[in-house]
Each structure stands twice: as C-alpha cells, then as structure tokens.
Amino acid sequence: MYVLALLFVFALAFLVECLSHSRLIKEDSSAAAAGLIRTLLHTVRVGLAYLVMLAVMSFNVGVFLVAVGGHCLGFFLFGSRFFKQSTAASAYVKL
C-alpha cells in the first residue's frame, strides 16, 4: 500500500506540472469558451496541487521525495525548453 501511495503522489505531482504547462486552447476559439476552459483547468490544477500538498504534510520523507520527483520530471518534460527548439534558438544555430 505504501508503494501504491508513493506512485499516486508521483502521478499527481506529474499531472500538476502537465496541466501547468499545457496549451489546450486553440487560437481561433472564442473568448468565452477559452475563459471557461482556462478556468476549469486552473480549478483542476489547484485541486490536484492541494492534494499533493496534503500528502507532503504527512511529514513522510518518501512522500516528499516522490512529490518533488514528480514535479521535477513533469517540469523537465513539459516546462523546460529541453525538448522544444524555438525559432530564436534555431536562428542562432544557423549563424
């Protein structure tokens, strides 16, 4: 059960980072629809972040480490620019 709890906290932390850096709204969508979708995603993200916070407040070192690891891996995959090549960076490479 402990390993399952650790996997669950890791997945929650990873999902929080995924939702934090996702671009699910298309440019041609209406302002009302975009606002509604952004509000819904923000609500889900904050709710999941509070669940991770409550798990960390158990003062268990293992839970803390997997929460930090989930946030770390999620940010690395979705938030960092490691996998994204910007046009500005590619312009510098060509010079």
Task: Write up this protein.
The chain has 95 residues and is mainly alpha-helical. The protein has four helices and no strands. It has helices spanning 2-20, 31-56, 61-79, 87-94. The longest helix is centred in the middle third of the chain and has 26 residues, at 31-56.
Attribute tags:
4 helices; flat; mainly alpha; 95 residues; 76% helix
Task: Summarize the topology.
Layout: H1 2-20, H2 31-56, H3 61-79, H4 87-94
Helix pairs in contact: 1-2, 1-3
Brief digest:
The protein is built from 4 helices and no strands. The chain has helices at 2-20, 31-56, 61-79, 87-94.
Q: What is the number of helical segments per DSSP (H or I, 4+ residues)? A: 4
Number of strands: 0
Question: What percentage of residues falls in helices of 4 or more residues?
Answer: over 70%
Largest sheet: none
Question: What is the count of distinct domains?
Answer: 1
Kindly provide the radius of gyration, computed on alpha-carbon positions and rounded to a whole number of angstroms.
17 Å
Q: What's the order of the H and E elements?
A: HHHH
Shape: flat
State the end-to-end CA separation.
Answer: 55 Å
Low-confidence stretches: none
Strand content: under 5%
Mean pLDDT: 88
What structural category do the secondary elements indicate?
mainly alpha
Keywords: Copper, Copper transport, Ion transport, Membrane, Signal, Transmembrane, Transmembrane helix, Transport
Family: Belongs to the copper transporter (Ctr) (TC 1.A.56) family. SLC31A subfamily.
Subcellular location: Membrane
Membrane topology: Multi-pass membrane protein
